[in-house]
């Protein structure tokens, strides 16, 4: 597989305006995420920039930015637009969507997201981590994934299983581990092209989770188990926490 890593970013945000340019350590957040994606050595990394200021920050850091329409409805649409512009010849079989608000991202998670695509039947791959903080079980901001890991080795990092559903509520019921979904998606190129043609679906709108659109359309998703959860920055409090936790590569 040949993978293209795309980080979508735009300045417009309700809870934390201009967050891609918020300074964390010695650089804007979007640059810190770009550095981590590059360090994964999983493929070339580009930023799908919805604003010129974001593109300028990335190019100043030595990276590649592709301008996209800031009015595109979702990060997946921005990723698709950037991939099609950057790779018109279709050289890359896989496009990895890495969210631009994960400044503490460990590079290995980007590579781990590709693991489930070893199965040719999988259209979209992602990563999850076991929930170990009790408060996360009832926190609607933490997206939970129902993943069927093999019972014999389900506790091992790198284990892969089908991802059957995602919710802001606690799923599944009963005894056993629960999993925190991490916002990294590895799309087969054809799956991404198909995904962006689909209209929002009933469960997607109800849960406010875009990935359910793919499941409702019949696409197959799978997840790899990892042992670390990057901090997503959505609020000023998250930003301050990220600044405290941040460690340079």
The N- and C-terminal alpha carbons lie at a distance of: 26 Å
What profile does the largest beta sheet have? 5 strands, mixed, barrel
Total of domains: 2
Using only C-alpha atoms, the radius of gyration works out to: 17 Å
What's the CATH first level of the largest domain?
Alpha Beta
Assembly state of the chains shown: single chain
CATH superfamily placement of the largest domain: Spore Coat Polysaccharide Biosynthesis Protein SpsA, Chain A
In CATH, the topology of the largest domain is named: Spore Coat Polysaccharide Biosynthesis Protein SpsA, Chain A
Average pLDDT across residues? Answer: 94
Weakly predicted, low-confidence segments: none
What proportion of the residues is helical, as a percent range?
Answer: 25-40%
The proportion of residues in beta strands is 15-25%
Gross CATH architecture of the largest domain: Alpha-Beta Complex
Number of strands: 11
Strand order in the largest sheet = 7-10-8-9-11
Name the shape in a single word: globular
Which class best fits the helix and strand makeup?
A: alpha/beta
List keywords for this structure.
single chain; 249 residues; alpha/beta; Spore Coat Polysaccharide Biosynthesis Protein SpsA, Chain A; two-stranded antiparallel ribbon; 11 strands; 24% strand; globular
Description:
With 249 residues, the chain is α/β, with parallel strands linked by helices. It folds into two domains: 1-103, Spore Coat Polysaccharide Biosynthesis Protein SpsA, Chain A, CATH 3.90.550.10; 106-229, Spore Coat Polysaccharide Biosynthesis Protein SpsA, Chain A (Alpha-Beta Complex). Helix content is 27%, strand content 24%. It is built from eight helices and eleven strands. The protein has helices spanning 29-39, 52-60, 75-86, 108-112, 189-195, 202-207, 211-216, 236-245; strands at 3-9, 23-24, 27-28, 45-49, 64-67, 94-98, 124-130, 144-147, 160-167, 179-188, 221-226. The strands form two sheets. Strands 7-10-8-9-11 form a five-stranded mixed beta barrel. A two-stranded antiparallel sheet has the order 2-3. The mean pLDDT is 94.
């Amino acid at each position: 597989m040949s993978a293209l890593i795309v980080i979508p970013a735009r300045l417009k945000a309700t809870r934390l305006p201009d967050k891609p340019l918020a300074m964390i350590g010695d650089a804007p957040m979007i640059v810190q995420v770009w550095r981590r994606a590059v360090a994964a050595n999983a493929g070339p990394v580009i930023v799908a920039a919805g604003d010129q200021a974001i593109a300028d920050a990335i190019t100043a850091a030595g990276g590649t930015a592709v301008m996209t329409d800031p009015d595109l409805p979702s990060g997946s649409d921005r990723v698709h637009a950037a991939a099609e512009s950057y790779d018109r010849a279709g050289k890359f079989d896989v496009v990895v969507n890495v969210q631009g608000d994960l400044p503490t991202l460990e590079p290995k998670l980007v590579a781990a997201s590709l693991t489930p695509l070893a199965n040719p039947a999988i259209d979209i791959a992602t990563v999850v981590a076991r929930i170990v903080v009790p408060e996360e079980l009832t926190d609607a901001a933490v997206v939970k994934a129902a993943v069927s890991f093999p019972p014999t080795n389900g506790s091992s990092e790198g284990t892969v299983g089908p991802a059957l559903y995602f919710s802001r509520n606690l799923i599944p019921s009963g005894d056993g581990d629960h999993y925190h979904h991490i916002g990294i998606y590895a799309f087969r190129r054809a799956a991404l092209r198909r995904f962006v043609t689909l209209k929002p679906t009933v469960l997607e709108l109800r849960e406010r989770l875009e990935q359910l659109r793919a499941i409702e359309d019949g696409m197959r998703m799978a997840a790899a188990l990892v042992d670390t959860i990057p901090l997503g920055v959505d609020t000023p409090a998250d930003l301050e926490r990220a600044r405290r936790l941040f460690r340079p590569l």
